[in-house]
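HUMAN: Forgive my ignorance: could you write out one protein's sequence and backbone structure tokens?

ASSISTANT:
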Amino acid sequence: MVDDAIAYPSYKSRLPFYLSGRNMASLKIKNTALIISSLIVGGIISVAAYRYFASVPKMAAQSTERKVLFWYDPMKPDTRFDKPGKSPFMDMDLVPKYADEGSSENNQGIRIDPAQVQNLGLKTEKVQMGRLTYSQTIPANVSFNEYQFVIVQARSEGFIEKVYPLTIGDKVKKGTPLVDITIPEWVEAQSEYLLLSETGGSATQLKGVLERLRLAGMSEEDIQRLRSTRSIQTRFTIKAPIDGVITAFDLRTGMNISKDKVVAQIQGMDPVWISAAVPESIVYLLKESSQFEISVPAYPGKTFTIEKWLILPSLDPATRTLQVRLQVDNKDEQLKPGMNAYLKLNTQSPEMLLIPSQAVIDNGREQRVITVDHAGQFVPKQIKVLHESQNQTGIESGLSEGESVVVGGLFLIDSEANISGALDRMRQSNASANAHPEK
């Protein structure tokens, strides 16, 4: 028993050790729970931190994301689409238009990325004062001088004794005989004159008879012959009154002739007229004959003297041209009516603002240019064109001397101005200026 007691201590003697063991186990459990709790809390914190820091770039990206206003086809910028996709006009994707592109409400211009501007091959030129030079060759034609047109008549009834060998197209000199005629009325008047002069007729009576002969068509030469020879003439020769070309002549020997019958029509050849149709837009520039040069294909290299010129008053509504008529010396009669000629105009306009013609955008309703301001923005401006010549355009209003206008890469910049609303702002500004003009 003693041995057993020694070998196996009693329950009471082992109780402190037992209690001590339970406390240690409990402590271990508590420590384990604390560790697990710490791990859980740490995990939660880590997940939350991860989510927070992961969302920061996304939030930053969302805050800097560009707002798309609409999509469009760069080749047809007037049409807008509310979502991306393929263009219905071209085989290409629609391009977004961002809210931060273009300009502010108080700015008329647009801003384009410098790299894109360089890729467009942008070219600008300054608006400057100068004169438009006109050097234009216009088809012309040679015609008769209508101031030298005469109609030859007997002015009394009679019959033709002789027709001289002439026909249409023949050239005649002044005094060339055309026909010999007999006119009874002239014979009767001569008899009356001689009778009065022999029977003591008054000077008034004699003068009256001679005047009646003049009115009846008797030439002054025949009248003076009557007074000097004091003999009756029965046969009279009608002669050409001017140098020229016969344009009408159809009488025959033995024909009766009435007082209204045309004996001949004669057209003068020196000087002749050269006429050309000049555009109405440059008529105001024609001021002196030195501005004209005449050339005729039939006589290459020959120069012609312009005696005088004028602009006819009527306008051709179909071609919007005015006729310029030049009177040209033709003593040698080389210029023939109907010949082709050319009229070369050499003149300059008054001083005005000039820009290259390729800078002008004309859609039929308005004319505009794209200018570059001091800040490098592209600003559309409406202009009013005066005239254009030799790739230069004169401007009446809309620009100032020294401004820069775009002459290269114009189409894409103008499309961008249309997309960004710069053209609408330009039109609104012009409408406001027209509604409230300065007094």
